[in-house]
Amino acid sequence: MKKLYFTVGAILLGMNLLFAQDSKTQDEDKYNIHIKKSTTPIKLDGLLDEDSWKTAEVAKNFFLNRPYDSSFAQLQTEVKVLFDDNFIYVGAVCYEPRSLYTVASLKRDFEGGTSDVFTVNFDTFKDKLNGFQFATNPYGVQREGLIFNGEETSNFWDNKWYSQVKQHDDFWVVEMAIPFKTLRYKVTEGQNTWRVNFGRNVLKKNEISTWRPVPRNFRPANLAFAGNMIWDENPPKPGANVSLIPFVSVATEKDFPRNESDLKALPTTSNFPAGVGMDAKIAVTPSLNLDLTVNPDFSQVEVDKQVTNLSRFELFFPERRQFFLENNDLFGTFGFPDTRPFFSRRIGITRNPNTGNTQRVPILAGARLSGKLNDDWRIGVMNMQTRKVNFGEDKYLPAANYSVAVVQRKLLNRSTLGGIFVNKENDFSNLTAEQTAGYRKFNRVGGLEFNYYSKDSRFQSESYYHQSFSPENKKDAGSAAHFMGYSHPNVELNLGVQRIGENYRADVGFVPRTGIWQIYRPANIILNPKSKKVAKYINAYGIGTEGSDVFDLKGKRLDGETNVFLFANNSAGSEVYLAKGWSFTHLFASFDPTNASDNPNPDNFKNVVELPVGDYRSNFISFGYTSSNRNDLNGSFSYTKGDYFTNKVKGIEGKSLFLEGSIGYRYQPYGVFGLDFNYTQIDMSKPYNSVKYWLVGPRAELSFSKSVFFSTFFQYNTQTNNTNINSRLQWRFRPVSDIFLVYTDNYFAESIPNYYIKAWTPKNRALILKMTYWLNV
């Protein structure tokens, strides 16, 4: 098996070196726009009537990215840029009749693909990997984000900038003023240039277009396809930038605990916590930022979206806390999605061993230094300290210190060589050996990683090796992998191989399985109809496959899955697919494939017989449909039916049915009403367990103005017998300063007659009031 692993690795590495010959992209120097210094004061009113705007160069002739990349956009855009000592100004005329406006809501940081939008992408260091994005829609709602990995965008970056929009019958005009303090850049001797691109999305016309063309197999924010913004006069040297963001919060919390074994009600507890803390943002250099947090509070963060859990392994839930989301591409993308050496949710969140519920861990303070040292070097250092937690019943979570350090070196045209080191130190002082049982004194992970992106973005690869260190100091504590991808308008090929050592441990990471090696092998063939009659209804169609195989370190197959699917989409953005799938699972320990123990009702799993060790196979057929976002009423639906954990030799047969979907209605421009649903039916032959699970989640997001927002999220989950309500009212009373009122409640979703529990019996609830204030020093 080792020989096979190294043979596959050598083949992939050879292919990587073969493809690592950067090809020059077409028209690389054709798209240039000069940015002039304004000779007159600019009034931000959406009129563009100052004399300086009349002499500014124009970026026009926007080219389509979707649905086709072979023609100019019908709804064109004209963009101009200026600057003065404090701001970069962007003015754009976006041609679009009022009747076509599509806006999800008036809430800031709206989700991509839900509204018409004009975007500006700046690559200030010209590394074609990292950049800033500023966007607004026809109603003047703002969104800002950071671009990473060449084309991915994170909208969790908050900062100050200004804009005004003026609507007309056949076009709308946007005028932006972006403070130089908001950006990170360097001024060099001689003429300065930045890379820039401008984009549009018009939902009802299904037109995504950019100034410099971006092929349709890439996202429009791809920095490999940016033009040049040439400074006629150098921009001002960045000055000091210090922001303080204090907060204050008060809350009332009430818990209704029950004995885990017999569900007998225990005395209720009430708590009235109050908190005061502060965040700070300090520009250490023009391109290096220091973020500090003292006694952080994340009470305004929306609860996790629940899922039906049928897995034997830990499920991944994304990070939602603002402090950890900023620059997360620098810290959180090392490794593969299922083998992350650093996962920020390990900090400040834990599972209570007495109740089984997830709870917050108090964070005393933290610091993060991140940014660029120069054009080639990027660094990040973060340190967080948490308090000790008393769970009761003589159970504790030790205080801990978390550190992570990363460094990236740009290579070739837009590739990187990176290193990471993660350290967790538990503080065992004032704790007995019994109280610290199950905890390691420390855990450390270090590794190197090479990410390759070709100049035209068609080829990409990732290679890494990580090594963990713990007090046990056991052998085979490393993880290594290599991935390669090829993206073409008509072909997408991906292949990856990964090995995770038996004793690889990442206590601050996400590694559900160890002692395995795994192969990933997705591929797609995408075709476009040549007939114009067919093209009216079908934009693209094709065939694809998704699959992976998991083996133990001796070569025994543990898991495998293969899906083959046909798909078709139209120019409006709707898509339909039909799939056939096969899966194999080797159970190395007995397992209940319904995970009935997730329900607090002891009767649900008291007599459950788990499947014995052995090999199981499943096959299924699936079809689904996703409608276009251009419609006010839109949604998606999927149906999957087939065998489930079947072993005919042992006489074990299972059947499964999965229905999943969502429906949403856009009440423009005030908000969106939606409903997510998931139905799971598993029928196993006797004496094994059969279940029917419902997971239903209505949601409403309303914006009463550009500064007052309300959202409420309801989740009804029969697998965990839990109903959750999470409601949040937000008032942005000044730029990046907010007041939040948050209500959270958990109830039993269904009655448990044998234990005298009725539906809607409360579990816990909380009401939180929090205010944050952004202060520039």
From TrEMBL:
Residues 45-191 form the Carbohydrate-binding domain. SUPFAM superfamilies: CBD9-like. InterPro entries: Carb-bd_dom_fam9, DUF5916. One of its GO terms (biological process) is carbohydrate catabolic process. Pfam families: CBM9_1, DUF5916. Residues 1-20 form the signal peptide. Keywords: Signal. GO terms for molecular function: carbohydrate binding; hydrolase activity, hydrolyzing O-glycosyl compounds. Residues 242-524 form the DUF5916 domain. This is Hydrolase. It comes from Emticicia aquatilis.
